[in-house]
Design brief:
The structure holds two protein chains of two kinds. Chain A has six helices and no strands. By secondary structure, chain A is an all-alpha fold. Chain B has one domain. A six-stranded antiparallel beta sheet of chain B has the order 1-2-6-5-4-3, with helices on both faces. Classes of the chains: A mainly alpha, B alpha+beta.
Amino acid sequence: MERGQIAQLLEKYWQVETTVEEEKMLEEYFRGTDVPLEWESYRDIFSFYERERGVKPGEGLEERIMEVVRPRPRLRGAWWSAAAVIVLGLGLSLYQRDKPAMKDTYDDPQQALAAVQKALLIASRNMHKGLHPLK
Amino acid sequence: MMMYKKLLVVLGLLLVGAVSYAQDDAIGKFFGKYVEDSRFSVVSVSPKMFRLFSKVNWDTIPADLRQTVSKLQSLRIISTETTPYVFYKEALAKIDMREYEELITVRDKNDNIRFVVKESGGIIHELLMIAVDKDGFTMMSFVGDIDLDKLARLSASMDIKGLEDLKNAKRKNK
């Protein structure tokens, strides 16, 4: 191949205007022996591409990638719904338990305590009636 | 995939179980039904309020009473003067006797009082008193760790005058 032609192709190459065929021609040329000294450095570039093209993916690469990206079964979703059910259940049972039975009658602990005392005494008195009916 | 569906079903059932368990409590059912009913008067002291008792001045309270109160967790009382015997019957019907154990029954001309307890491992967790006479019906539930001996002795150490004092003290605070 003519030197001038190669120079032209190189020009196109650096403008990224070469076709696949033209690049093949360049590669072929730089694989040859009569490359002028000034273009010696291009030899590395074109032989690099050629070499790299020969690299094949390793055994089982596709499987390894698919393993990483494959859609998971909806395990996560199931666990989330399970967690939601538990939280809902606890919340609901606490709600049920606190309402309406455990709405405090008194705001003041002192008053509440007085009510508790009174209730205990009434209960105690009634127990006495049962335990000592003849008194 | 099937496994997770099964898991969800099981959890769902557990949830239903937990909710129905919460409503199973006899006085809870009765309370739920009548707490907003104007014929009833209600007193409830929640576990939260029981915790606040630590901030109250206990000096005037006898030691027996103090010990008993400190082991309680909650108190609920519901009472009415309207058709007491009707509500008494309803309350008894609502109590699941598989859960409670009969403790004391008093029946004479004037009174009809029942004490039932919920017990496990030798500890009484709930004492339920259901009392009726022609003037009224009362249902009282103490939840906590209840020492029956101590409770029975309380009234012996305090006379009726003590009770009146308490009533007055309550009024003064209002």
